[in-house]
Amino acid sequence: MEELKRKKRTEPIEEADIENDIDDSSDDTGSKGSSESRSKARRTKKSKQSTYEKPKADILKNVKLGAYRTLSTTEKIIKGLSQVYEDIFVKHDEGIKRSFEKEEGIKFFQKNDFARALEHFEIYIEEEEEEEGEKDAEVMYMSAMCHVNLSQHKDAIDYFKKADSLTPNDPDIIFEFAKCLLHLENYTEALGYFQKAAEINPDDADTFYNLGTCYEKSEQIEEAKKMYKKAIDLDPREPVYYHALGFVYENSGDHKDAIVCFKKAMDLERKKHG
Question: CA-CA distance, 114 to 260, in Å (whole number)?
């Protein structure tokens, strides 16, 4: 029993220790038991001690869990939300954040808030380039249109070129790119894109009207007349086409045909506006 007291003062008593000490003390006082049973108990204790080693990962986990339990409810919520944000937006899928920027850009684009839409599109494009991912023609095109609607036609050119390279035969991209070039008075390049647009969509009257404008600005008057007439054939109710053809006739000295076109344009205007 003196041995049991000494152990109590120096270290925690384990259940196996108590059992072994009881066995030892029983033998000392003449109780039932044998040296074999004591030896077996000691082997069992030694076996338990040799196999009980916590993995380092478990120890670290318990330390973290203990630290987490000391936090207040508010701190736990903040920490949890921060971890969720990091897992979603930083660690696992940067594409989610890019998708958010694109969706926000489209939302503002549809509201005609082109400045704010462009802010989101530029973030999307910047992150896309950093990750060297596949380029998005739709975002490039909408970024170009934002610049156009903000009267920043020169800034739109690079976006149109990128969009066109990603989807070479998209009629909307080609047509709007051509209009941007026409606005910048780059008639030769604009003419090439309008011709391409006409090949892709030969029934679009507005394409032929713009072709006529390019030819007229390039002083190719006969070609301009052909394109304006083609536009009228495709959409005979649009007064703008008659006005354009009338001015070409007037500037080339054909006053009679010019008057006919101007009268037709005025009639259509009255019908259009009641």
Answer: 41
